[in-house]
Amino acid sequence: MAVSRRGVALLALLPWFLVSDAHADPPASCRVVDVDFTPGGSPSTSKDPEIVPQIVAWLEKPNGEFVATLYITDETGRYGLGNRPGRFDFNSGPIWPYGRRVTVFPVWANRRVSNTPGVSKRSDLMFPQVNYQNGEDFNLSHPAGDSSPEVHFCRPLIPNEPSWDAATCPSTAYTDKGQFASGSPTELYPPRADVIPSLKSSGGQDSPSVEEYRNRNPFDAVSQASPRLGMETQISWPIPADLAMGDYVLFMEVSLERDVNDHYTAEMFPSPAGIPWSTYGVPYRGQPSVIYQVPITIGNTEAIATTDTYAGYGDPGPTGAFDGKTFPMPDGIIRPPDDTITTDRPGSGAARLLLTSKGGQLFRIRVDARTEPDLVAPGPPGAMAVIDTQAGGATLSFTAPGDDGVIGSVTGFDVRYRVGNAPIGDSEFDAANEARFTGRIVKAGDLQTLVIANLLPETPYSFAVRAFDDCHNNGKSTTVMFTTAPRKLGEVDACFIATAAYGSLLANDVEMLRRFRDRMLRHSVLGELAVEAYYTFGPAVAGLIGESDLLRSTARDALAPLVRWVREVH
């Protein structure tokens, strides 16, 4: 909260050293747009994982001129959901790594490209298409030599696997990060911006294109983690100083996988046909994206506007089977509301944003444009403590600062990290790797927790955190250093050593070996004994192989005679 909500006189009570410890000379005030909403979706069950919506918010002038993107969930804005290697109709599952989701935000993507002023042609605002490195985007498989370790997505899963509804990936995944397609085809969505390349020129598996992904993605700064289902959420956008006062329209587009009804069924949008791994995942397309819009006036006085209805829906994409060789470009037309969209089931269709009450108003979206006096930047987080470390993550805690020194609640936290025991200073903060803060922000003085995932086992790390306020003033950072725990034996892929050697469960030779195991070995006593022994000793060996390129190469050489023999008899 800012000074206007407590009274400027409270600043006189702050000790001078608390004020001086914050960011120097913050602006006296800024104009902000606050957007309140509550996302719905599909809660997790014993058979299925939680499915959260993808959300984007943007501002336009009443004549349709695109102004700016205010907010985008990071699965699309940071991790490249709309522009990943693979055909757009690949099945989906928990944190699925492949298939460009071209219908995730068709209205936003097209209007941004077509209606931004001062741009001579659409292609100037589009992005190079990302394909598999071997160019075979019609097939889910990819070579091991193109597959580098993955720190965000899970490997593709079959729905009856025990890990299907788990909250974390079952094992280390290796994925093809892709490359810019030859012939210069373009997409409406950016590539992922989180990859630290392991280039083939230096003995890794990634294409030189990966080095350009972050630079080609302009949305990383406004990307945020998907809010929790049913949690009242507020995003805050500092209005640029050069934005003219006047009338605008706030748009929000909400997409949700597997949101089917009688008009949008899995049969209309089936699994890919003619590929060996069509049993992985489930069809994801159902009801299309839905659009909400709220007219708002930005000026010197506070203006609040709401809506409790949806304005229409986006392009649902082509129905029926798809050959995988051409990729449809969705249109940006807002289709008017009709009876094909669910309106009476919370979390589905037009009710993907839940009805919420605030200040006596019932709404799905509430927009508040106001001037925010802000004389003091946030204070630094209190000393960080390591609550727990695991092989792949850690839980940290610190005393939360206020958005004005030690008063109120901050808008958010920036988190940075690097490998090693050297602390991250304020001058080095922006250059360090970014991690995402996904917790719920507490008020000043309370204990704030920070959960970190996707770390390497037995590795030293330095983490730093700083707070920012509504006007995006940054406070000073606080740092902590720790070493992650040793690896624990746990659930791993169904073909342990081969998967570690080839880098992916879906590598062609791995799939062939797995099917040979299931069809041949399990139908004899000796074969069953061999399988049981393999399951006893395989995980520990796979853990060593998977982390060493040399051992992976050696294991592939060792498996080569078996692969040749299975090909002959299978």
What would you note in describing this structure?
The protein has helices spanning 16-20, 74-77, 106-115, 210-216, 496-502, 508-519, 525-546, 549-569, and strands spanning 29-37, 54-60, 66-73, 127-128, 130-131, 148-149, 174-175, 179-180, 186-187, 223-224, 233-238, 246-255, 290-298, 303-307, 312-313, 356-358, 361-363, 365-373, 385-389, 394-399, 412-419, 433-435, 447-452, 460-468, 478-483. The protein is α+β, with helices and mostly antiparallel strands and 570 residues long. The strands form eight sheets. A six-stranded mixed beta sheet has the order 10-3-2-12-13-15. It has a four-stranded antiparallel beta sheet with strand order 11-1-18-14, with no helix packed on it. Strand 16 (356-358) and strand 17 (361-363) form a beta hairpin. It starts with 15 loop residues before the first helix and ends with a helix. Residues 1-26 have low confidence and may be disordered.
Explain briefly what this protein structure is.
The chain contains eight helices and 25 strands. The protein has helices spanning 16-20, 74-77, 106-115, 210-216, 496-502, 508-519, 525-546, 549-569; strands at 29-37, 54-60, 66-73, 127-128, 130-131, 148-149, 174-175, 179-180, 186-187, 223-224, 233-238, 246-255, 290-298, 303-307, 312-313, 356-358, 361-363, 365-373, 385-389, 394-399, 412-419, 433-435, 447-452, 460-468, 478-483.
